[in-house]
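Lab manual, section 2.4: Encoding a predicted structure.

Procedure: take the sequence of the chain (282 residues), apply the prediction step described in section 2.3, and record the output as structure tokens. A sample record is shown.
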Amino acid sequence: MPSGDFDLRASIRFSEGWEPAAIAPSRGGAPVLRLAFAADDWGGHAAVALTQDGDGVVHGELAGTGDPALAWRQALRIVALHEDGRGYAAVGARDPVLGGLQARFPGLRPVSFHSPYEAAAWAVLNARMPAARARAVRDGLAREHGAVLEVAGEALPAFPLPEALLAVREPPRGVPEEKLRRLHAVAGAALAGRLDADALLALPRDEALARLQEIRGVGPFSARLVLIRGTGATDVAATEEPRVRARIAELYGAAADPEAVAEGWRPFRTWASVLLRSSAGG
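Recorded output:
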């Protein structure tokens, strides 16, 4: 049972509108969210299908190789069910602007990349490449060098494990050699433990960002993406993001200081930032 308000349908709607999502949502009938990913310990691949019953309990069907308990933990992190969210409503009670958005979008929590590793790989692929093309390249790498797993009646490609990505010697058609070198750097960093979600979150924010930028192809923007949207972070500020800053100015006033506003969202600054951004136009 989720701790705090959670609606799987909101996660599905969120993932459908998020360009880099490697998620297969429901296709009719009861809402189902399907995930396929490289396991955090690089011991295999996993696929998970999540459903939520009328009482709010979230159920999962699991397939793949490796440790089932680890795969389930990773799936919960991806949909922000790894944290106790019961205090999130209290943040909205203190901040009427945020509380109003919580009422308009009940049960919405961030959907993250499958891991910091996959977030960093996406950042490398997407740099100077349209999102649709980057998705096609990522899915091609998954099918050729990763795994295709079936869960809840659907086959899903899962991104290559780091060792398999390092073994890719020819870049996909139309992809520069430098992108492959950067993907190799991401894979090497993953194997060295530099893209472990828990380890990154244990560091001071600036130190984590600096370490991420030591990886070839990961700049300031990509480092923030990996830290905030790759680790399942709950309370990492995202106020440098232009769209978050624009929403703060729109909702709190042009003179509002984004950092000061975000301080009021502790300990759910990431969740609040994602809610502001995803509510634009909604």
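Check your result against the sample. The mean pLDDT is 92.
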